[in-house]
Amino acid sequence: MFSNLPNHLAIIMDGNGRWATSKGKSRSEGHEAGSETIDQLMDSALEIGLKNVSLYAFSTENWKRPLKEIQAIFSLLDDFIDKKLSTIHSRGIRILHSGSKSKIPGKSTSQIDKAVRLTENNTRLNLNFCLNYGGQEEILNAFDRVIEKRIEEKQSPGKKLSQKEFEENLYTYPLPPVDLLIRTAGEQRVSNFLLWQIAYAELYFTETLWPDFNRSELIQALEWYEKRIRKFGGL
Ligand code: FPP
Questions:
Q1: CA distances (Å), origin 22, targets 63, 85, 153, 213
Q2: Distance from the Cα of residue 30 to its chain's centroid
Q3: Could you tell me the distance, in angstroms and rounded to a whole number, from the CA of residue 15 to the centre of ligand 1?
């Protein structure tokens, strides 16, 4: 169907709150609708043949939100895994988590660990949930990990760092760089998402709110991407 698909698609799923408000619903209901969009996106991604998809589900800055909303998001994640994990596994999807485990509620940490463990040998589609994720925090954490490993392995902590060694310590390893970043709901910023990985990504912004981001919206974004001429700094 596509001559040129992004090897890694990343999505900032924005607009759940506005979608809910426009319908007189609670913000939590907006996130619930957003979670259904994730479900449909998985089907579309498999059908289209996408290989790596990262979703910004909860940022390191989202802890500033009211507790009720935070609880609603993690409880949706728990339900999603309860309801979908066996289908996800049988369809060959591998679940990954990018972000810090600290602060994530215990039940959600177990759910994520269970999903990651069960699906670790699946190869059809990598679905990466970015939860308690911040791009700057990820970069700092990668440096810490490099230094810790060097100390453990009795290497010089001051040895010159290669791009390969650094990237192997990012949360997203072994996912490839992002080719296409989609942000829904009209904002045109990257909000601390995959800062290292989007170095040469094409950026696609749509006014559509995340709960309304259906298969045809995804196709539109991929058709737009297909026409991009990517030079990576060359001619
Ligand atoms: C941004 O919209 C959305 C989030 C911060 C949360 C995203 C969460 C989900 C899509 C559901 C979680 C479910 C699973 C399965 C992980 P916003 O609330 O900032 O929207 P607004 O800008 O319109 O207020």
A1: 24, 32, 56, 16
A2: 19
A3: 7
What is the band of 1 on the pLDDT scale with cuts at 50, 70, 90? Answer: confident
The Cα 218–Cα 31 span in angstroms is 19
CATH number assigned to the domain with residue range 9-226, chosen from the 4 options 3.20.20.150, 3.40.50.150, 3.30.70.3280, 3.40.1180.10: 3.40.1180.10
Domain ranges (residues) in the chain:
9-226
Q: Which residue, 34, 7, 66, is CA-closest to 197?
A: 7
Give 213's DSSP letter: -
- The per-residue pLDDT for range 17-32, each reduced to its tens digit, is 999 999 999 999 999 9
| Angle formed by the axes of helices 67-90 and 106-118, nearest 10° | 20
Q: Name the residue type at position 202.
A: E
Give the active site residue among 4, 16, 43, 62: 62
Dihedral angle of Cα 62, 63, 65, 67, to the nearest 10 degrees: 140
Query: Choosing from 4, 7, 14, 212, which is the catalytic residue?
Result: 14
**pLDDT > 90? residue 226:** yes
pTM of the model: 0.97
